[in-house]
Amino acid sequence: MYALVDGNNFYVSCERVFRPSLNGRPVVVLSNNDGCAIARSNEAKALGITMGEPWFKIRHLEEQAGLVALSANFTLYGDMSDRMMSLAAGLGPTQEIYSIDESFISLHGVRGDLMERAWKIRARIHQWIGIPCGIGLAPTKTLAKLANHIAKTAERKAGSYPSELATVCNLASLSAAELAVILQATEVGTVWGIGRQIAQQLQAMGVHTVHDFVALPGDVVRGKWGVVLERTWRELRGEPCIELADNPPPKQQIACTRSFGQPVSDLPPLQEAISEFTTRAAEKLRRQKHRSGQVMVFARTSPFRDGPRFSKSVVVPLARPSADTTALTAAALKGLSSIYQPGYQLAKAGVMLLDLVPDSQVQCELLWDEEPTEQRDRTRLMEALDQVNGRFGKRTLLLGSSGMNQGADTWGMKQVRRTPRYTTDWTEVPVARA
Prior knowledge:
Pfam families: DUF4113, IMS, IMS_C. The chain is an alpha+beta fold.
């Protein structure tokens, strides 16, 4: 058995913990530089606000419907996530943290009433840190994900599913007939592992519900969509095919991108931004103990603004895979210079580290026609850089090419609606007055 613990509207719930006045009101959390909605309360969803909707299209709802918009406060959300995951871990012996607000828990070997145990863990999370959760239980991970969807939908939309499945849903406790009714009421596109395109293909074949999908012959699923979807099909039929990932595999790519607070057209501020993004990506690269063999750089104008359009990218290969911030930044700036053109109001840029290899592997090169250049090993320098910035805060030590003011007047983040970092900064701890 598996359980999926999922924080409801997680970013909004984190904000409501410290601002109870937001309860019952439509709230959205905006992306970096307040670009678009990345989290919505149920009340905001009822207004028709969709995920990723640009802020300028819903701004009028502030006056018309009392919509509250907040800048993303990822420092707060990350800390609240750590607290929630530590409490959720009490549900079973092993845990896979799937995302900032979701974790799978293995219940193998757990004795007693699993529903009672799930309700107690949910109550503990809500009481201790104030985050409401939905919990789904089932024999496989895909069914647990589906059970969580049913639990949250039944809680939010009365009548969509039986009320006893709201908040905590155990599909294993249902009879075959009851489960068939639930699967018939669930659209196939809601299944974990079935994307939009596959859902459209299934619907074109007359497969509209999860019940229709599991009724397909297995050889048809495998022949048309391959073994990956066949694995999803088997999991929905109760056959465990996906193991719990105690140690998720390292990322194959590391990206750092950002929309600018103000349009950027000159090269110097753009170089500062790219240098800063590369520094952030290099820190992540060293944390997962990898090196990068190629650096991709891109820049583009806004698709929502009038004027000439620009969108270019370039990949710069490195002679030798590296995790050295200075080497990666030099490659990124070289790539930027090759694609930069004046006269465009650039709205977004970013860096992606590609061709990642473990830092235990050393790939040397044969320079038949060139004299080998001396390459200093800066591993200890990078370790010192990370330790200083980890202890005293980001940008305590930084490359000069990143600029000193974090692009405050150009490429830096605005976040004018950000709430305090209540749990991680002593100067922003809330004060209670009696």
